[in-house]
Amino acid sequence: MSTCYPRPGSIKISEGETVTLLSNYSNAQRHTGVMGLFYLLVAEPSPKPNSILHSTDETGEIVILQNAIGALTAVFGIALLVGAAVIYQRRNQRDQEGYESILM
């Protein structure tokens, strides 16, 4: 049994249009089971995303922007570096407030 369906968003049915389902059977391939089971899924168009992290490509599918992920990763990395620098600074300051080191 084979299935055939278009990609989501590739077919648009306007109000008042008639949808016709056409089935072609060929005995060139051996078939078993039900030969005439069909279903049609219809959905309302989804609202356009208003997030800066989403965009639509030419097929209408929602894709997460790679640039946004890269920017978030960079911000996270910078935050880690700043946190490490603050911890290092505080440890050095605490060590210097106590005793003086003896150097010869």
Structure notes:
Strands 1-2 form a two-stranded antiparallel ribbon. The chain has one helix spanning 66-97, and strands at residues 54-56, 62-64. The chain is rod-shaped, with a radius of gyration of 31 Å. The chain has a domain at 54-97. It has 104 residues and is mainly alpha-helical. β1 and β2 (62-64) form a beta hairpin.
N to C succession of SSEs:
EEH
Widest β-sheet, arrangement of strands: 1-2
Q: How does the major sheet shape up?
A: 2 strands, antiparallel
Q: Any low-confidence stretches, pLDDT <50, length ≥5? A: none
* Overall outline: rod-shaped
Distance between the termini: 87 Å
Give the averaged pLDDT, no decimals: 73
Number of helices: 1
Q: Using DSSP, what is the number of strands? A: 2
Based on CA atoms alone, the radius of gyration comes out at 31 Å
Which structural class fits the helix and strand makeup?
A: mainly alpha
- Beta-strand residue fraction: 5-15%
Helix content estimate = 25-40%
List the helices and strands and how they pair.
Blueprint: E1 54-56, E2 62-64, H1 66-97
Antiparallel strand pairs: 1-2
Short précis:
This protein is mainly α and 104 residues long.
Defining key terms:
mainly alpha, 1 helix, Putative ovule protein, transmembrane
